[in-house]
């Protein structure tokens, strides 16, 4: 595979991942409407996805990660995903959804800067401008409601920092472990932690077929496919560019919310989406980062 074709595949994987993650709030709205609580939804999300990915591992006879890679992947799921989710959902109690989402989308800038520091390389002005433009586009896209307490801001930044570390670790581990084996271990470890939390709090399962369909959508499209695709994208594009290109997620969420939930798309959302797409186009013309 040539470098150009590998990079094109990386863009495709980012779009798949962004589509899956971007659809998750839509699926979640339907799941909540059918009586599913947060702890149960998170457990079912990772448990179903882990079962599906384990089946893929067995059918394709893929090699399970071992040694240092295995422990790093377990940490990514049990600490990274759980910690990021806790900070994010806790932040929603002390800050508006708009501010919380914006703070989470600091992660492309954090990943880009940390990747440059770790690789001891100079960050180009054009790449930095694209990252900042994507962040500005996300700020426009999340809407007018930006406010919260200091605790909410701390938790929101915490979610971005944890996810940034998750991405940087994942970029290095995926090179040796592979995207599908790596994603499978991440999902299994996250499912184990969320299972304990759900059992402690008591599970509230979906009451209807529509509820189970929404949970299945979260597990299959927004977890199994999205995580595996994102890890594959990082292997081909580098952590920094994969993270920045993922700012397509709020654009996809806004479009899907308009289609399936009847939510209006305002001028700010259109401008934000245009800025993000412009940043994405700039990044596609830059060489791959080393991390």
TrEMBL record:
Keywords, A to Z?
Answer: Membrane, Transmembrane, Transmembrane helix
Q: What domain of life does the native source organism fall in?
A: Bacteria
- Sequence ranges assigned to domain EamA in this UniProt record: 9-142, 151-284
Q: Which residues cross the membrane?
A: 12-32, 38-58, 70-91, 97-119, 126-143, 149-169, 176-197, 209-231, 243-261, 267-286
Q: Which InterPro entries match?
A: EamA_dom, EmrE-like
Do you know which SUPFAM superfamilies this protein is assigned to?
Multidrug resistance efflux transporter EmrE (SSF103481)
The region annotated as signal peptide is none
Name of this chain's protein: Drug/metabolite transporter (DMT)-like permease
Q: Which GO terms describe its cellular component?
A: membrane
Q: Does the keyword Transmembrane helix apply?
A: yes
What organism does the record attribute this protein to? Rhodocyclus tenuis (Rhodospirillum tenue)
């Amino acid at each position: 595979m040539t470098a150009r074709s590998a990079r094109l595949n990386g863009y495709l994987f980012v779009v798949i991942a962004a589509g899956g993650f971007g659809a998750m709030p839509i699926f979640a709205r339907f799941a909540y409407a059918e009586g599913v609580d947060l702890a149960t939804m998170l457990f079912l999300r990772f448990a179903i996805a882990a079962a599906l990915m384990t089946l893929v591992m067995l059918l394709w006879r893929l090699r399970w990660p071992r040694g240092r890679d295995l422990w790093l992947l377990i940490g990514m799921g049990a600490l990274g995903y759980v910690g990021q989710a806790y900070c994010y959902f806790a932040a929603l109690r002390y800050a508006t959804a708009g501010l919380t989402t914006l703070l989470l989308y600091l992660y492309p800038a954090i990943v880009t800067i940390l990747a440059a520091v770790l690789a001891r390389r100079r960050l180009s002005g054009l790449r930095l401008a694209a990252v900042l433009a994507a962040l500005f586009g996300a700020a426009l896209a999340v809407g007018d409601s930006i406010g919260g307490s200091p605790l909410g801001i701390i938790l929101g930044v915490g979610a971005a920092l944890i996810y940034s570390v998750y991405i940087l670790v994942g970029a290095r581990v995926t090179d040796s472990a592979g995207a599908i084996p790596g994603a499978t271990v991440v999902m299994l470890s996250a499912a184990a932690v969320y299972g304990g939390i759900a059992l402690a709090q008591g599970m509230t399962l979906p009451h209807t077929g529509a509820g189970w369909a929404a949970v299945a959508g979260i597990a299959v499209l927004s977890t199994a496919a999205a995580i595996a695709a994102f890890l594959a994208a990082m292997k081909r594009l580098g952590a920094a560019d994969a993270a920045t290109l993922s700012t397509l997620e709020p654009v996809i969420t806004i479009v899907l919310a308009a289609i399936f939930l009847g939510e209006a798309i305002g001028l700010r959302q259109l401008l934000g989406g245009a800025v993000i797409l412009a940043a994405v186009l700039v990044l596609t013309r830059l060489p791959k980062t080393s991390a």
